[in-house]
Amino acid sequence: MKSLEKFNKKIWPAYVNPEKNELFSSWLLRISKENLLKSHSFSKFYFNNFPIWNRDIDKLYPSIIVSKILENTMLSSDDIKELFLESYRDIIFTGREFTSYTPGILNIGINHRIRKLYGLLCCPSCLNNEVSYFKKEWRLFFSIACLKCNCLLIDRCQKCSKPISFHRLENGHKNEILKTPFYFCWNCLHDYRENIVPIPNNSHIVRYQKYIDCTIDNKSNDLTQYSFMFFKILYLLSTKLLTTGKTTNRIKLTVEDFFNYSITTNNKINFSLHERKEALLISFSILENWPYQFQNIFKSSNVRRTDFSRDIKDIPYWFEKEILNLH
Ligand SMILES: [Zn+2]
Ligand SMILES: [Zn+2]
To answer: What separation in Å is there between the alpha carbon of 150 and the centre of ligand 1?
Structure first.
């Protein structure tokens, strides 16, 4: 191992820089490959054998991994934090601890090395870039499209319907490093790049995703000074529209009636990208021209303020002052 005396660093034999917004797990696979190792062995040698794939490593942000990267690369603590979903704290979510369920972050449903849920998205067109890698925003509840490529994201293999689970591309090649590119399904080797669905430039989806991306970049928007207070309400509205529960149906029925549109739901909690997309776009319409559209929809309805407030603590003021006018 080379030693950079000046910086008191032991640099890993081979190194690749994380790409913009790259997820730690994606970078780990790429740097392991560069070091001619499987990620499991890389972790064994360089992260004190810290288990990687039987937990949500991108959410976890383990201190041992952070300190080992600090020791062995030229990345700063801030650069390292950027690799983890922890970097969305106070942007997408707030609060001290990550729990197993964090609003705004999709759940991947880990069972040993297997992912049961559709909590990792991807842009089939981005995966075709010169450096193919997975991005942090592909773990967000609020992501539905890629504005770099102007196309929809996907949340599963369009052929075999298995969740996207790129670490499993290393499987089946004993003692061999990763050979299959990220754009192939780990299960059936379907090429995700065949499923690029373009979106028109001025569509509602583009307006929505632009607003989301800008809110994340600026950490605030025109509705609130703190972006997490916006995402809290966008999440609340979307989940109200996706509910199958009877007591909370008043909001959903009123909205469906107003837009003359029926929102499909098959799940209770882990919604598919298709379900989220419907609910998010309608929620975004409710929040557009704030608060006039909201007032139009709810003022003369039978929706009560408690329909919104019962499942949420610390309602952001920008939203609370409008629901106070309801029954
Ligand atoms: Zn893209
Ligand atoms: Zn497949």
So the answer is: 7
pLDDT of 9 strictly over 90: no
Encode pLDDT of 154-177 as tens digits. Answer: 999 999 999 999 999 988 766 677
Q: Are 286 and 248 in contact (CB under 8 A)?
A: no
Taking the C-alpha atoms of residue 296 and residue 176, their distance in angstroms, rounded to an integer, is 61
- Name the pTM for this structure: 0.94
Q: What share of the chain is helix, strand, coil (3-state, %, to 5)?
A: 40, 10, 50
Query: Residue 171 Cα, ligand 2 centroid: separation in angstroms?
Result: 15
Query: What is the per-residue pLDDT for 127?
Result: 97
Contact 199, 208 (CB under 8 A): no
Sorted by where each begins, the domain ranges of the chain are: 2-195, 220-323
Confidence of residue 125 (pLDDT cuts 50, 70, 90): very high
Question: Minimum-distance ligand to the CA of 209?
Answer: 1
- Tokens read off for 214: 């800008």
CA–centroid distance, residue 95 to ligand 1 (Å): 31
Mean pLDDT of the chain: 91
Distance (angstroms) between ligand 1 centre and the Cα of 90 equals 25
Q: Tell me the CA–centroid distance for residue 197 and ligand 2, in Å.
A: 17
Q: From ligand 2's centre to the CA of 239, what distance in Å?
A: 29
| Ligand sitting nearest the alpha carbon of 183 | 2
Phi–psi pair at 238, nearest 5 degrees: -60, -45
User: What is the CA(88)–ligand 1 centre distance, in A?
Assistant: 20
> How many angstroms is it from 265 CA to the middle of ligand 2?
24
Task: Name the amino acid, one letter, at 256.
Answer: E
How far is Cα 4 from Cα 2, in angstroms, rounded to an integer? 7
| 181 contacts 173 by C-beta, under 8 angstroms | no
Rounded Cα gap, residues 252 and 238, in angstroms: 9
214: CA distance to ligand 2 center in Å?
33
Helix intervals (H) in 219-266: 227-241, 249-259
Residue 198: what residue type? P
DSSP state at residue 156: B
